[in-house]
Structure formats: C-alpha cells, structure tokens
Amino acid sequence: MTPPSKLAMVPFVSVANMMRLVHHVGLPVFLAELTQAVTDDFKRWPAFDKTPRVPAHSPGGVIELMPTADDTLYGFKYVNGHPKNMAEGLQTVTAFGLLADMASGYPLLLSEMTLLTALRTAATSAMATRALARPDARTMAMIGNGAQSEFQIIALQAVCGITDVRLFDVDPAATAKVMANLRDTGLNLTACTSAQDAVLGADVITTATADKRNQQVLTDNMVGAGVHINAIGGDCPGKTELHRDIVARADMFVEFPDQTRIEGELQQMPLDHPYTELWQVLTGQAPGRSRPDQITLFDGVGFAIEDFSALRYVYDRASGTDYVENLDFIADPDDPRDLFGMLARAA
Amino acid sequence: MTPPSKLAMVPFVSVANMMRLVHHVGLPVFLAELTQAVTDDFKRWPAFDKTPRVPAHSPGGVIELMPTADDTLYGFKYVNGHPKNMAEGLQTVTAFGLLADMASGYPLLLSEMTLLTALRTAATSAMATRALARPDARTMAMIGNGAQSEFQIIALQAVCGITDVRLFDVDPAATAKVMANLRDTGLNLTACTSAQDAVLGADVITTATADKRNQQVLTDNMVGAGVHINAIGGDCPGKTELHRDIVARADMFVEFPDQTRIEGELQQMPLDHPYTELWQVLTGQAPGRSRPDQITLFDGVGFAIEDFSALRYVYDRASGTDYVENLDFIADPDDPRDLFGMLARAA
C-alpha cells in the first residue's frame, strides 16, 4: 500500500504531547499566552458564530458538542460530564477538540482537551480577574481544591500578580494536595479550616466546587467590599455555589448570557437581574470595576469561544514541532471522484 | 515519562486501516453487513435521540456536526461539504466520527468517515431498495458516476441481487472510470449516452449527481411503471435532482422528515405532500410497495443514525484487531482530582 498523502494527514496532540508542550513553554508562560489568546478572541466577540451547546443527556451525565467559528476557522469541543465516574476511577470530565479551515472544511488540528480545558478555564478566570479585580489585588482565596484549582492559582499568579493563596476544601486531603503541588511556585500558601477562614483578607475569591446541586460556599456576610469573585463551579443546570444575597450585592459579568442563564449563578436570579457581557468590558464598550469598594462577580460557565482560542493557540504553538503526530485521517484519492479506485488499489 | 494508562487510550481507525478492514471482510460482505446494521437501527427508530445537524456556513461550503444517541451509545460525525475543493485537488466531502459510551461519556472509537460515509450511504440505499423495489428487480440505472457510484452499485448487487447496470454521467470519463473499477465484479455493465438511454429497462434508478443546484436528471416521461428510485444526490438546501412531476407521481419514502424537508427532493413539494417514514416500512407499521406498477422514491439525504450504525458496525468488526491504533486521547491521572500532579510528574 502506498503511504497516505500529505493531504490525508491531520496533526494530533495527544495527552502526553500536550504535557510536553506545556513543560516546553513553561506553565506560567503557557497560561499567560493562553489568557491573551482568549482575550484577543473575546475582543472580537461579534465576529463569532455562537451556537448553544448540543447536549445528549443520560441518567449518569451529559455529552456535549460545543462548536463555534469565525470567518476563517472552525472549532468544536467534545466534552462529557459524568459525576459518578470518579467512584469508578474514571475522570468526571474528558474532552477533545478539533480546529478546521472554514474555506475548505479540512481539519487542521485534533487535540486532547481534558488538560487543555483546565488550562483555558484558568486562563478565562485570569482574563476576568485582570479586567475586574482591583489592580493592587495580591491575595486570593481558592475554595474547592480539586482538579481545576492549581491551574486557577498559577494563572492568577502569572497574569494578575497574586502572591498569597488561602486554600479551603471540605476534604483536607485535597488542600494538602494543592499545598504539595504548589510548594515550589514562590506563592505563600495557607491551608484554611473553613471557607470563612479562607476569604479573610482575600482580594480575589475563586470558587471551584464540584457538587451537582445548589450550594452556598460563599454567603453574603463573608464577602467584604472591593473583592472580585470568580464563580467557576456553578456550571450546569441545578448547580450553583453562591448564596443569592451575595450574587444580588455583586455586579455580575458573564460570557454568553443565553448559556449563563441556564448554567451559572444567574440561574437563581430573576430574569431582569442586571449583568454585563465580559467582552464588552474588554473592548471598552461597558464599564468593568468603577469603584475600589465594588464587588465584582465573574459568573464563569465556560464557552465555546474559549475552546476555540485554546485550539488556535495550541495550533500556533505546536505546528511544525514534534509535539504533534500526523494521523491518517482524511481519504485523499489521486482523483477525488475515484474513492473506489483508491480503495481497490489498497488491496 | 510513564506511558499513558489503558484508560487513556481510544481506538482509532485510520483511512488506511479502514481500507484494510474493508478488504479483510470483503466489500460485498461489508456492505451487506452494514446494510443489516443500519436496518437494525432503523427498526428501533424511536429509541434514538434525534437532533438536527449543527451547521457552520461559509461562502465556500458548510461544516456540520451530526450527533445521535440511544440509551447506551452516543455517536457523532463531523462532515464538510465544499464543492469548490475539487478544483484545488481536495475532497468535496471529508468526515470523521466518534462513538462513545453514554454511561461514562468515554470515547470508544474514533474513525475516519470519508470512506465510511460512502459505504453507509450505499448501505442505506440498499436497505431502501430491498424494502421498496420489486423483488424481481435485476437491472439498475446509475446516473451520476462520481465517488459514490461504485459503492451504490456493489451494495445493490450484494443486497438486492442486481445483475445489470446501465451507467450515465455528463462526463464520459466518469462512466469509463466506473466501467474499469467494476470490470471484475460479474456485473453486466453498459455505458449509456444519456440519462434517457440509461433508464431503459431499469427496475431501479439511483441518481447521485453532485451539482449544488436544482437539476432535472430524471423527468416524468423517463420513468416507467414499477420502478424504484434512490435519489441520493439532492442532499442540501437548493439542490434537487428530479423533475417535480416525477416526484409528484411517485410514492415518497424518507429518513428524518424534518431534514428531508429542507435537503431532499421534498424541498420542491408543497408542505402537505405525502410521504412515509422508511423506518415504519421496515417495522411493518406502514406499507412499502403495495403494487408491482407503483413508482417508489427513496428521497435519501443521509441521517445521523446511519453514521451511528456505521460506527457501531466498525466498532464491532475492528475491536481487538490490528486495524485499530490506540491514541493517547484521554488524560487519566492516578487521582482524578490531581490533573496538575499528573502534569507535574510528566516534566
């Protein structure tokens, strides 16, 4: 059999190669560059074809396709969310994605996105924090010390200059894991015994808890003036993290309102609850933080454009390196009308 | 770096391996088994979650995601259609697909589908022809001798006992290609100089022309009593193949009516034009052919369940063979909460 032609090949970034790429670039630099890539795409928000996620529900969870496109590039992510997986030693969330050329429809890059989703979620929080937190913010509270937490922390260190981190999780072992994982980062880390303890003196509070139900990891009395909150864990219908009173007192910033309405903290608010689209803050079309004592809330649920930015960034960073393998993914007959002949000659 | 765990691996069928698998099984057997797989799934039509295609349009074409699921399996296909690609030596249509486990959301199979789509489209025509053509049908007219045509012919030979094939294409070189490709199949092949010539004496007429516009490759006076028509080429908005009068005279059978309405020959008919859903014929809930002189028309546009069946069939046929490669596709940390630790240990 003749080897497949170059046209048949699609670059693929495996999990192992994504890890190699991140180490090659350096995690803080990777997160800073990715934050810029997401910011660049948010600044041209109207250029994107924005489609709601396409879900397939089962009793155990959901599988979703998240497509978006601009004039030249198309991207989609496949992602599942199955909370019961962890009990069976499986990941709750796995993901992969594809970037394609709009002009020809040909795939440009296939990539693992389990790791990349954690990275882009952290980059998105960093983008929101850079836009909305007080410029002198140096202390962060990280509530929920699961798979997302270290990436959230490193992104805020790299992009926003966070120096002190106060950690809390209902499971002390999760906090101990973060303390161990981040011991060489130069951050001052404090393990706290309650969420109330963790938020003491924090300029930025990031919540990334995992339970699929309405929680109140932050109540109104815990949040002082001038704080910026990234509420990352409330990200599907029926799952919220914050007490309604603190949501009501804060000024809310969102990604794609149609999605935040059904997945974010916005679920618990009336339909006329005011919010600002984050992209408009980034372009200067809407105010972000207007007073030092204002409480700003980024109600992050994750949106397809962030995955698009991540795929675009990895495509730029990995193309032509040995962090990609070429997959024989596209049939490329000598004569496009002769698919059968290609098959016959392969015998 | 430790090698990825078994859980991280997803079986992948490349184009080269799909060709090897087809040759290993034998093309006629592959098509007959695939026809049965599609039929089995059509017979349990109500069990599927049916979602319209999710398109992203550009001036040069369209990229679509086609998902569907039953209680246990999820499948989707990525497919593009870019008519101008051929002039640049690229395929008009390329595709790949994924099968996943609904219970865990974990991918089970990633596969090329450029070749597999041609195979499942032929299998679907064979399913419709077996259900709707006269049992004594032996002669087929194949109008449009492009990339689909040989697969359509072999499927009807394998599944429906077609012995004679009358070929026509506006480009005689395309017909010559089919004559050469099928010379060792035992079929009696006749190259015809017009569509009118090709349909003489044909019991089954399959049209698979490619132009993206309203054509009339078949007019009413060309189609005699008792014929079954597979109209495969009219498969997107603004693209039809048959004269309205022959569509009006035939009894129409469709896949998913919502999609046929905007993509099939049904486009040119009034909203109250009668049709029968093919799955109901296969289950016996609706009549198929009721008279030998009836003209039956399968207005095929391609539906996600056919891709699901094809992925399921390839998964069953290829699992555990060396026609699959394992891709390091899913991050699998020792502790699912410790994605960061997995990354750090890979340094």
From TrEMBL, chains A, B:
- InterPro entries given for it? NAD(P)-bd_dom_sf, ODC_Mu_crystall, ODC_N
SUPFAM superfamilies according to UniProt: NAD(P)-binding Rossmann-fold domains
Q: Which Pfam families match?
A: OCD_Mu_crystall (PF02423)
What are the boundaries of the signal sequence?
Answer: none
Top-level lineage group: Bacteria
Name the chain's protein. Answer: Ornithine cyclodeaminase
